[in-house]
Amino acid sequence: MFSVDNYIGSIKSNIEKQSDLLVRNLEKIIAYNFSSYIDLLDFSTFIEHTRFELSIRMFAMDKEANEVFYEGNDTTVFAGSVEVIPDVKYYQLNDNILDDFIDNFYEKNYPEIEQLEQKVFTDWFSQCWKKAGGDTLDLPSYFVFHDDYKSFDLKKNQWIDDEEKWS
């Protein structure tokens, strides 16, 4: 009934529908006047597997892994965090087959599926990042999965251990 290829293909199809929105929002972020106290940007991805939803939030960070906030009077200076893309459905499934999907497909194929999901989401974000002009941004920028131990360096186009970006 379910196959890994069909599942991943459906995810690609669903998130590609959000590409224009993601590119527009990234273009706005890239144009921000970032606070000089910001050392890097973390684009954190939050995945809600039970609802098949994905959201992305950008956090302005310092080298000590703290979010940077701006308390000055210049309203053009940005620090803090901002929603990049709200909860979007990355997979459609009828509720009446959800248990079967999770028990008989997702859990049995979990390690492979998780890696493929992360690859699809990372490739999609990275492509939209480039299309939005992200390579012109002077700040180091990373795509991360919430509570994961690795980050995708958007400038170098490679995965790194989280500790590397804080050093």
From TrEMBL:
From what superkingdom does this record's organism come? Answer: Bacteria
Question: What is the protein name for this chain?
Answer: Uncharacterized protein
Organism encoding this protein: Rossellomorea vietnamensis
Q: What is the lineage of its organism?
A: Bacteria, Bacillati, Bacillota, Bacilli, Bacillales
